[in-house]
Design goal:
The chain is built from 9 helices and 5 strands; from the N terminus they run αβαβαβααβαααβα. It is of the alpha/beta class. α3 links the parallel β2 and β3.
Length: about 250
């Protein structure tokens, strides 16, 4: 699987570079939302997508919990600032849909706020798509047995323990409840202009390949080939880098 995965990802990343080039040339704006349970693979998928992209052409929006000031604003206000501009790709690692699943499950919002959100989302996203933003929404699906396995791996790995928050610990006990909230969210906010897509992420590598392949098929772009680059010959011999002695060299430790 690893060899096959690496080959598939290399081909997909070449297509993602073409996608980014096409967005830049056409001025189109692409917004991709990643939702799913904790440890489903949202962050890893975003890293896989952006691995070979020009950092100037994409942004990742992973917003923390709202500040005291933000809780007094229109709910969508803090997200609007992160929408893509011309030629840009923006990837939301969780989004305004926090209010559809996480917040009601954890009692972080009232029933009235929850219902008002579900009523408002289709109109809000219609405004975005009417203005030309392409909106894609993915739910990364993972069974509870696999989720528990990933939680255990995170707990055992010092490099990943930071990913386990107190909210995650509570949410573990609400698997069924959050599944029901997810279904209501999709049923109430599924629209042709801003569709939901579900991806099986019990195998994260297979899920990444399937998601990226699907994403590439959803974005209509003119066939804008990435221009080839021919390096001219250097004038003279290659130079050694001599840096002023005012700066100190970092010692070799590897």
């Amino acid at each position: 699987m690893s060899k096959h995965y690496r080959k598939a990802m290399k081909e997909l990343q070449l297509e993602l570079i073409r996608l980014q080039h096409g967005l830049h040339c056409s001025g189109k704006r692409l917004l991709v939302i990643f939702e799913g349970r904790d440890a489903a693979g949202k962050g890893g998928t975003i890293k896989a997508i952006t691995q070979s992209l020009d950092t100037r052409g994409y942004r990742i929006a992973a917003l923390p919990k709202p500040s005291e000031q933000e809780t007094t604003q229109w709910y969508f206000q803090r997200y609007v600032a992160h929408l893509p501009c011309a030629g840009e790709l923006v990837l939301f690692d969780r989004s305004w849909y926090n209010r559809a699943v996480v917040e009601p499950a954890m009692d972080f919002c009232s029933k009235a706020q929850y219902e008002a959100f579900l009523d408002a989302v289709p109109a809000f996203e219609k405004l975005l798509t009417d203005d030309g933003i392409i909106v894609l929404k993915y739910w990364l699906a993972v069974d509870q047995v696999e989720q528990e396995k990933r939680f255990a791996e995170r707990a055992d790995d010092p490099l990943k323990r930071w990913k386990l928050s107190p909210v995650d610990m509570v949410a573990r006990q609400k698997y069924a409840e959050m599944g029901k909230l997810r279904d209501v969210m999709i049923e109430r906010t599924q629209r042709e202009h801003a569709p939901w897509f579900v991806v099986d992420f019990n195998d994260q590598k297979r899920g990444q390949v399937n998601l990226i392949h699907h994403l590439l098929q959803q974005v209509p772009l003119h066939d804008e080939p990435v221009p080839q680059v021919k390096l001219p010959k250097l004038k003279g011999k290659p130079k050694t880098e001599h840096v002023t002695e005012v700066a100190a060299w970092v010692p070799n430790t590897f």
